[in-house]
Amino acid sequence: MFDTALLLAAAFVAGALNAVAGGGSFLTLPALVFTGVPPVVANATGTVALLPGYMAGAWGLRQDTEPPPGLTMRRLMVLSLVGGAAGAALLLVTPDATFRRVVPWLLLVATALFAFGPQLRARLAGGQPSAARATVGVLAVACYGGYFNGGLGILLLALLGLLGQTNLLAMNGLKNGVSALLTAIAVVIYAAGGIVQWPQALLMMVAATAGGYGGARVARRIPAPWLRGGIVLTGLVMAAVFFQRQ
């Protein structure tokens, strides 16, 4: 009963957090590991659980979604699917011990990129980003998301900022859509590889979906500085937890 309550609560808050600005897997991954699921399987299972939440969040912010400079929606969709598939395939061949060592560093990198996104964009700014830079950036982040869902939303927001988007609501809508696409193809590969624990995944899907749609509506009422500060704090706390577990 305690494990069930923990997984439901983590999935609900994670769905809302993903819809608002990202970082939901910072909660689902530790919750699954705490209940005895191996790290690689926990990552895949948590990703499956959050897929409906990504879809619900994208639908909730559909009116604000627009592609970043240098990309069309069609190219963005193709890059998301290709990168997500490549990252998921890489996860299938990663041992648990290796994944456990890599996780906190991935969390720190994602959090730092989001925290210093505006400064990075100002330093790299030299006119509109080229289509090549945008293509490589989206493909790399999609591959990351297919491999490790934790911090995906944070990394996507950082990338969109570097590519020239400034409207946080538009960035959130696009982030949710890209996350849904690359996660969908990753889930197919995880399932084929047999690394999903379906009872936990299906249980968490329900809570994540409710949290995802509700969080998308709440995002319109939260000041942007509060969003940014809350995301950075969540990333730092979860990275510290995983470092401590090592």
From TrEMBL:
Main location: membrane
Entry keyword Transport: yes
Keyword presence, GTP-binding: no
Record keywords, A-Z: Cell membrane, Membrane, Transmembrane, Transmembrane helix, Transport
Parts of the chain that traverse the membrane: 31-55, 76-93, 99-118, 177-195, 226-243
GO cellular component terms attached to this protein's record: plasma membrane
Subcellular location: Cell membrane
Protein's membrane topology: Multi-pass membrane protein
Family classification: Belongs to the 4-toluene sulfonate uptake permease (TSUP) (TC 2.A.102) family.
Name this polypeptide is given: Probable membrane transporter protein
Native organism: Simplicispira metamorpha
